Amino acid sequence: MTLTGASPLAAAALVLVGLFLLGRGHQAARRRGLLSSTFWLTFREFAGYRARSLYPLLLYVLGLAVVLAGILLAISWLIGFYAGRFGHPLP
């Protein structure tokens, strides 16, 4: 299946799943103090012995990737929809 053949429902589902992952990652990161400037100033020391506690950042990255994939699917569906409806302007 190409990007232009994807349904808008799939794009909306990807965006919603991505937003859910971003929300969960944000909650977990705030709980663990990963959003403070003190954490980022001492990131090397923290990551050396507490790498397990960094999973909320993984949720952020995963959520962002899923949201971007959903947005790309939605945009490609819109382009395909209007290209089929009005005729493709490019040769």
Structure, described:
- The protein has 91 residues and is mostly helical.
- The protein has one domain (8-85).
- The chain contains four helices and no strands.
- Helix 1 (8-32) packs antiparallel against helix 4.
- The longest helix has 32 residues, at 55-86.
- It is elongated and about 60 Å long.
- The model has no long low-confidence stretch (mean pLDDT 78).
Give a quick precis of the structure:
This protein is mostly helical. The chain has 4 helices and no strands.
Keywords:
single chain; 91 residues; mainly alpha; 76% helix
What's the β-strand tally? Answer: 0
Please count the helical segments. 4
Main sheet overview: none
How many domains in all?
A: 1
Radius of gyration: 19 Å
Helix content: over 70%
Give the amount of beta strand, in percent. Answer: under 5%
What order do the helices and strands follow?
HHHH
What is the general shape? elongated
- Secondary structure class reads mainly alpha
Low-confidence stretches: none
User: How far is the N terminus from the C terminus?
Assistant: 23 Å
Tell me which oligomeric state these chains represent: single chain
> Overall mean pLDDT score?
78
